[in-house]
Amino acid sequence: xxxxxxxxxxxxxxxxxxxxxxxxxxxxxxxxxxxxxxxxxxxxxxxxxxxxxxxxxxxxxxxxxxxxxxxxxxxxxxxxxxxxxxx
Length: 87
What we know:
The protein is an alpha+beta fold.
């Protein structure tokens, strides 16, 4: 599986503390090998992000992605639940 990252995702990631960037890196590696590992709590989204899915990075941080095709995933946003969803 190929993971691609939007410009928005890259900008958001760059603002995180080193510890959060490391956790994100660890979770993306896990995602690449097992997208539905229980630690990721992978689930579909509705509303603004309908058609996308979310994975957990930490207790509050999430990464949002969609499938471009069977072998390519594009991550489009990453941040706290509040920053991404406003709740």
